[in-house]
Design a protein that fits this description.
This protein is α+β, with helices and mostly antiparallel strands and 85 residues long. Helices cover 18% and strands 32% of the residues. Strand 2 and strand 3 form a beta hairpin.
């Protein structure tokens, strides 16, 4: 029964969920149901297979009371390796 409900929920979210796009490249990362509750962002049923990093979106006008949040993939670390090969 639990698997049936999970499959039904995944079907609806994959069809009607919000598209999650990378803010830097515009690439489609997946779909999810985005719920903001008590100051936290919940992505329910995210269909992508990668980790997302929340970022503030660029705005035309500076508004400190309302920020738009987008998502991007975390970058690879660019610091030198302690143990070179």
């Amino acid at each position: 029964m639990r698997n049936l409900l999970r499959n039904i929920g995944h079907f609806w979210i994959s069809r009607f969920g919000s598209p999650i796009r990378d803010e830097e490249t515009g690439e489609l990362l997946g779909r999810a149901l985005v719920v903001v509750w008590r100051g936290k962002i919940h992505l329910i049923g995210f269909s992508g297979s990668m980790v997302l990093k929340p970022v503030f979106c660029v705005q035309d006008r500076v508004r400190y009371w309302r920020q738009t949040i987008g998502f991007t993939r975390p970058q690879e670390p660019d610091f030198p390796s302690k143990y070179p090969e």
